[in-house]
Amino acid sequence: MGNVFALLGLRALFVLVESLVARFRYLDETIAIVLGLVGVKLLLEDVVHVGPLGSLVAIAVAFTIGILLSIRGDRRDPDAAQHRRDRAEAMRSGREFDKEKEPAAP
How far apart are the first and last CA of the chain? Predict the structure, then answer.
C-alpha cells in the first residue's frame, strides 16, 4: 500500500515541477546540475564524506541560482511572457520548445 501512496506523491510532484519548469526558464538545467551533484556525491562517498547539511546547502544554492537567473533573464527579455506561454503549451502538447524558432501553429 505504501508504494501506491509513493506513486501518487510522485505524480503530484511531477505536476508541480512541470509547472515550475514552464515558469522558470533555466529550471531544466538547474535540475540537471542538481542530479549531477547528487551523482558525484554518490561516486565520491567512499573518498570524501559530505554530510546531509552540506548536500542540502549545495542543492539549495543550485536552485536559488537557477531561479534567480531565470527571473533576471525574464526581466531582460521583452517577450518573456510569450515565451513562458509557449514553453507551457509545448510541455502540455509534448513537443520540444525552441525559443529561437517561432512556435508551430496548432
Answer: 42
CA–CA distance, 96 with 21 (Å, rounded to integer): 13
Are the CB atoms for 91 and 97 separated by under 8 Å?
A: yes
**CA dist., res. 63 & res. 16, Å (int):** 15
> Would you give per-residue pLDDT tens digits along the chain (106 residues)?
667 777 777 777 777 787 787 778 888 899 999 999 999 998 998 999 888 899 999 999 999 999 999 888 878 777 767 777 777 777 677 665 555 554 444 4
Given a contact cutoff of 8 angstroms between Cβ atoms, the answer to whether 20 and 91 are in contact is: no
